[in-house]
Amino acid sequence: MRIRDTGDLWWKNAVVYCLDVETFMDWNDDGVGDFPGLLQRLDHLADLGVTCLWLMPFYPTADRDDGYDIVDFFAVDPRLGDAGDLVELIRTARDRGIRVIADLVVNHTSDRHPWFRSARRSKDSPYRDFYVWSATKPPDTSDQVVFPDQEDGIWTLDETSGEYYRHRFYRHQPDLNTANPQVRDAIAKVVGYWAEVGLSGFRVDAVPFFLADAAKGRGDDVERPHDYLKSLRAFLTRRSGDAILMGEVNLPYEQQRLFFGDDDGDGTSDGDELTMQFDFVGMQQLYLSLARQDAGAVAGALRSRPPIPRDAQWATFVRNHDELTLDKLSDDERAEVFAAFGPDPDMQLYGRGLRRRLPTMLGGDPRRVRMVYSLLFSLPGTPVLFYGEEIGMGENLAAEGRMAVRTPMQWTAERNGGFSRAAPSRLSGPVVEDGYGPEHVNVADQRRDPESLLSFVQMLVRRYRESPELGWATDVEILDQPHAAVLAHRSTWQDGSTVALHNLGPDAVEVPLHLPDCATDDGGAPVRLVDLLHDAHWFLDEKGRAVVPLAGYGYAWLRVVRDGARRLL
């Protein structure tokens, strides 16, 4: 593939930025963020280098689960603006080279959705079979709940109809019955509508859950569950050829692979289901490595990643909008991470995750924070940032549950962090306080400081975008070297090759590297390793060897530069 072809698969080396409109920027000063406010802050995202904006749910909602309890799939929450504001955002973002995707939440609806209200009124309702019902009380399902401290089972008696309805999440979020062809048609209508409005794809919420029902068709309609995901992807591709489905699939790699399109067990994937998947396993192993200050766990995750189709991609991240889940770690491993980064029970959630942001977990050590973000952008895949990460925002543990990390964006040192001029009591969420409050952490101050975290992340974004081998690499090699705290990996694509070094420990080390393919014992010109993040370079000897020093929590991106190379450095 030629470099100019990468624009067709724009997601392969995109920079994704996730935000909640409600907490990003309030332009009418009612205490709630809105689309006009986001539009006014779009240049911040463009300056950062964002190429894909992921919007958390902006639809009308009962607002009992931060927008994930939807009452109308075809409208905009009036608190945030109207459809015209959204269209203006999409158009203006595209003008700045930013595509817009949004959450697709089709595992469930709010219990206030007109479909469910009709379904519970009568068993003869045309929407009755849009949901999953049981005439008899189901057995104990306490081991199946997603939020174990909130629900004691996944079935609730609907007193209106006298039957039980299923809800894997909260009881106010009844599950949609995706085995019903009419439900599938309705979901396709939602996808088609927003694609026509101008979205470039969707982040698909809770994929394994809504797919689980897809095999429960009737008679001739019975099919494998992944066939439904294939049909949804095919429909979106017909409507918008370069739109994506970025899926939330928190499963082990061997199961996750199936969601790229390999459901026949032959070990290969057609790439006709999800375009991208979040690397939950890699993220959790990264935190285990950080807790141990030993790179072994994250290196093991990279080695065990299954191959994926050329058109597919991993989405890498160190923080998302939910609890920082650690459910794929063993109990002992999870305890290690809790002890290192969230020892207080109030910092933990659901017994499986943390409700903290990265800087506070790392004790505010700027060396460690920068090392982790350098590692994120050097990992094979497409990096995803959660709003506020670029300036090192903290959390507010006084907020309930996952809302601790969904606090208002901090723009200035002014009241409410410049998010809104409304009274603090009217804000959509509490602002972070103490050492990570707006007076200490905000965009305005960091924009003027070339040594700030914001400036550093901007540099990482630029270097990542200039290094297609990081997103497109088909050959990622974990390099042998003697230091347990150091991760050394090499990404290669076409004529580009970069060696990334990251020291997860506090002690300075010297890392011996051996790149046999760069040997010049035949008399050729020596090969250089040029650090893309610092003003430094090293020559490989005739055997392809060099020793590179790394400070404690140090990092380097070393571009392999051969004689006659024409890539800009």
Automatic annotation (TrEMBL):
GO molecular function: alpha-amylase activity; cation binding
Pfam families given in the database record: Alpha-amylase
Alphabetical list of CDD domains matching this protein: AmyAc_TreS
Enzyme class: hydrolase
Keywords: Carbohydrate metabolism, Glycosidase, Hydrolase
UniProt xrefs under InterPro entries: Alpha_amylase, GH, GH13_cat_dom, Glyco_hydro_b, O16G_dom_2
An annotated GO BP: carbohydrate metabolic process
Segments forming domain Glycosyl hydrolase family 13 catalytic: 18-426
Catalytic reaction annotation: Endohydrolysis of (1->4)-alpha-D-glucosidic linkages in polysaccharides containing three or more (1->4)-alpha-linked D-glucose units
EC id: 3.2.1.1
Family according to the record: Belongs to the glycosyl hydrolase 13 family.
Name the record gives this protein: Alpha-amylase
